[in-house]
Amino acid sequence: MAQRPRPPHRSLLRTIYRILQPDAGVIELDGANVWHIAPREVARQMAVVMQERTGDFDFSVNEIVMMGRNPHKGMFDRDTIHDFQLVDDALARVDMTDFAQRSFLTLSGSRS
Predict the structure, then answer these.
(1) Domain coordinates of the chain in residue numbers?
(2) pLDDT, tens digit (0-9, with 9 covering 90-100), for 43-97
(3) 27, 35 in Cβ contact below 8 A?
(4) 70-93 as b/e, with b when 16 or more CB fall inside 10 Å?
(5) Of 33, 50, 77, 86, whose CB neighbour count within 10 A is largest?
(6) Which residues, in sequence order, are bridge partners of residue 33?
(7) How far, in Å, CA of 16 to CA of 25, rounded?
(8) How far is CA 37 from the centre of its chain?
(9) pLDDT single digits (tens) 4-35
(10) Is the dihedral of CA 5, 42, 58, 51 positive or negative?
């Protein structure tokens, strides 16, 4: 079965997110080629939540945002009061506080 080509904007975003390597050119983050930076370091500066769902993991919006704290902590570090405050602040910045306890699976790309 032949695969349909991806729309150009999806390929560009996947290249920026380091899912696809660019065919030509360079994607930079703070002046450095993202492919020359350790993945964990890139994750400390840029986070992505894809709209496609690849599984049925039912996390709350709050839990998904908290996962963005993982690159900033050690493997066995627990969530701290500071982590919870950063998550609350992030949700407030994007006007999503009211959605914090809602299942991520119930959201649409337009945040309905």
Answers:
(1) 1-48, 55-112
(2) 888 887 777 666 678 899 999 999 999 999 999 999 999 999 999 999 999 999 9
(3) yes
(4) bbeeeeeeeeeeebeebbeebbee
(5) 86
(6) 28
(7) 12
(8) 17
(9) 555 666 678 888 888 888 888 888 888 999 89
(10) negative
